[in-house]
Specification:
Elements lengths: L3 E9 L4 H17 L1 E9 L4 H9 L5 E6 L1 H11 L7 E6 L5 H5 L6 H10 L1 E10 L2 E3 L2 E5 H7 L3 H7 L3 H10 L5 E7 L2 E7 L1 E5 L3 E2 L2 E2 L12 E6 L1 H11 L14 E6 L1 E6 L4 E4 L2 E5 L2 E14 L5
Parallel strand pairs: 1-2, 1-3, 3-4
Antiparallel strand pairs: 5-6, 5-18, 7-10, 7-16, 8-9, 8-15, 10-13, 11-12, 13-14, 15-18, 16-17
Helix pairs in contact: 1-5, 2-3, 6-8
Length: 300
């Protein structure tokens, strides 16, 4: 049973008052029972979670993040540069909660709160890109187009499937691009409609069809999806698809590495953990076991 002297609980202060009160009622009692000192902080605007973690993270044994993948992304960007980094727990409070799914965290908030004290500590890899960090995925091409084209109203109503509705809409205008990859000093040149670098196992609540994905192996998995491979990739990610991608499939190329440099002939926007943050070229480096998250270890 885990217990903590000082814990910081971060939540979105802009959520509806009733919704926030319901969530706090479900979780605070469970959490306070396992923490000698619990500090609760509300974010007010974008960037607050990163700033709070950067300024206060080292003072706590545990940081609890209530929110979706965007909030988790902000928090790990605040925590990752710290010399003294606390353990991290995630309470899934967003639309997709993909990273929490990679940690096998229950999507029920009360159960997720109980797991903070009953779960196992995982030494999770973090990937650094310039001054940014991510834990779930990096993508360019169609995945970025889909992210940018999600209609907020549709997202609110349809949630998990909005990502793929957007992807289906953008595929009609997909333009292949030339990409040059430097993977642990091996040079590879391809033509693709999407490049995906995955650390986590889920996108849009759907599990990626690649069994090799691990959070603790010191490697990222890079996928180059060609025009002919996108339909297969899309089907495998939606409820219509099942199974895994054959490693011999020439339309979806799979690589692993500790450090990557990704260059495109024309500048491409880059999506990290569901938000567009930067552009190509990008240099990525895996920071092995950089943060400790609480979850349930995946059984073979």
């Amino acid at each position: 049973m885990n217990s903590y002297k000082k814990a910081l609980y971060i939540y979105n202060g802009n959520a509806g008052k009733k919704n926030v009160l319901d969530i706090l009622n479900q979780t605070v009692g469970v959490i306070s029972a396992g923490c000698k000192e619990l500090t609760i902080v509300a974010t007010k605007e974008k960037g607050d979670a990163e700033r709070i973690c950067s300024e206060k993270g080292s003072s706590f044994d545990l940081v609890i993040i209530l929110g979706g993948d965007g909030t988790v992304h902000e928090c790990i960007n605040g925590l990752s540069p710290l010399l003294k980094r606390p353990k991290v727990a995630v309470l899934p409070g967003g639309t997709c909660n993909d990273f929490s799914r990679s940690l096998n965290i229950p999507q029920n908030l009360e159960q997720a709160a109980e797991l903070i004290f009953e779960g196992s500590v995982q030494n999770v890899d973090v990937v650094k890109e310039g001054e940014n960090y991510f834990v779930n995925f990096w993508g360019t091409g169609l995945i970025t187009d889909a992210s940018e084209n999600i209609n907020d109203a549709i997202k609110g109503v349809l949630g998990r499937i909005s990502y793929f509705i957007s992807a289906i809409q953008t595929i009609q205008n997909a333009e292949p691009f030339n990409v040059k990859l430097n993977i642990d000093e091996e040079i590879i040149e391809e033509r693709a409609v999407m490049v995906l670098v995955a650390n986590g196992r889920f996108i849009g609540t759907n599990e990626l069809p690649f069994p090799s994905l691990e959070l603790e192996d010191g490697l990222v998995d890079l996928f180059v999806v060609k025009v002919a491979g996108f339909q297969l990739f899309k089907e495998l990610l939606t409820v219509k698809g099942s199974g895994v991608v054959d490693e011999k499939n020439q339309d979806i190329q799979h690589y692993q590495g500790k450090s990557l440099k990704i260059e495109t002939e024309e500048v491409q926007k880059v999506d990290m953990d569901g938000e567009v943050y930067s552009n190509t070229p990008s240099e990525l480096k895996v920071l092995k076991h950089h943060l400790q998250f609480i979850g349930i270890k995946k059984t073979p």
